[in-house]
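Q: what sequence does this backbone want?
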């Protein structure tokens, strides 16, 4: 495996082109006094795009990304970008953290110091990690698969190969959303290589449930709510699961359209209905994520995971993973809070199940210290259990 250092650099002409396109945005009309019920509000978008054009500094984002050790690895025709930061403790645990959608590796940067150097924040250096944060294929600075059929299970295989190439035959994992779907399948296909798995999206991937399956009342309530949620909010998923290429022409051509598409999800999956997105994230971080999609032109490849998901071999009737799992539930997004017995259908070895009492879908950027503490606590429990067994 060819692994080489990588530096993020966007040419000045591309930055100037972005600003020119922002300047020439053709704004849509809007229903009077409309809020989020019609989609992302016009006033919000004008404010965000004004900031993007006049105040946002991509160089600051580049410097922050490049302050960490970036690499690319060639694996089966994919140039896989990843950040690799070593822990300071005597025996750091290797930990892979793939991102979700519509997000990038950038969201996970805030976790790094809490995981690699816990002693700087009142923690124990024995709980440190070697942190690997990949850009999933088709996202960020990884290359995009151009052949039909690349899906979550293939992404999981590439992550296993990456960890082996770094010298880790066993490793820990944390993920949510798309990253959780990939890691859940990884835990099914390569359980012997996973020390333990921590997640804030315990319903990804979903367990197999037959038509005549006996469900608890809590499971029935959860599935009923999930169906209602997708009926009201899942139009994007249906579109991307059927005709992603059609939407790509607009998203790849218009920075305003791309930002609206992504930021709407960050709002809806974070804030309560009366909340404000900027109470949870600052403009620079939000637009850094959008800018990565824009400069790398990866939104179409990222969206294709929805289409290819129609053909992924998802868990079947007999699939179970023996990997120990830890669950941390965020405060919002009820459709992401399945009951424990639902998760146990796929992951019967749940070692921890706890409430964070805060945060939404993008909790790793919203509450990085808290998430890092829960990750450390979960894997400390696994390590302590192993020490007791050896003793």
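A:
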């Amino acid at each position: 495996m060819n692994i080489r250092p990588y530096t993020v650099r966007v040419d000045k002409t591309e930055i100037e082109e972005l600003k020119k396109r922002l300047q020439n945005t053709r704004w849509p009309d809007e229903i009077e006094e409309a809020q989020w019920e019609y989609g992302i509000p016009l006033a919000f978008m004008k404010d965000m795009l004004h900031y993007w054009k006049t105040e946002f500094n991509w160089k600051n984002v580049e410097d922050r990304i490049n302050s960490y050790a970036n690499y690319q690895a060639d694996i089966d025709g994919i140039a896989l970008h990843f950040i690799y930061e070593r822990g300071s403790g005597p025996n750091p645990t290797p930990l892979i953290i793939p991102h979700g959608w519509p997000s990038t590796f950038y969201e996970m940067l805030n976790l790094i110091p809490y995981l690699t150097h816990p002693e700087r924040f009142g923690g124990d250096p024995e709980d440190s990690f070697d942190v690997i944060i990949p850009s999933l294929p088709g996202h960020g600075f990884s290359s995009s698969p151009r052949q039909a059929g690349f899906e979550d299970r293939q992404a999981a295989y590439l992550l296993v190969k990456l960890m082996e190439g770094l010298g880790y035959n066993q490793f820990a994992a944390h993920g949510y959303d798309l990253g959780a779907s990939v890691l859940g399948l990884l835990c099914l296909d390569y359980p012997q290589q996973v020390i333990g798995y921590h997640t804030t999206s315990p319903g990804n991937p979903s367990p197999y449930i037959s038509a005549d399956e006996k469900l608890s009342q809590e499971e029935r309530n959860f599935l009923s709510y999930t169906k209602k949620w997708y009926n009201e909010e899942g139009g994007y998923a249906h579109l991307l699961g059927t005709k992603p290429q059609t939407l790509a022409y607009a998203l790849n051509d218009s920075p305003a359209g791309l930002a609206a598409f992504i930021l709407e999800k960050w709002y809806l999956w974070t804030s309560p209905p009366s909340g404000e997105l900027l109470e949870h994230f600052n403009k620079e971080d939000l637009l850094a994520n959008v800018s990565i999609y824009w400069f790398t032109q990866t939104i179409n490849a990222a969206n294709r995971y929805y289409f290819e998901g129609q053909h992924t071999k998802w868990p079947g009737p007999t699939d179970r993973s023996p990997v120990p799992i830890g669950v941390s539930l965020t405060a919002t997004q009820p459709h992401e809070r399945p009951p424990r017995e639902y998760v146990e259908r796929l992951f019967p070895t749940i070692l921890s199940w706890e409430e964070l009492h805060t945060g939404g879908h993008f909790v790793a950027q919203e509450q990085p210290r808290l998430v890092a503490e829960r990750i450390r606590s979960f894997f400390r429990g696994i390590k302590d259990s192993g020490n007791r067994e050896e003793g």
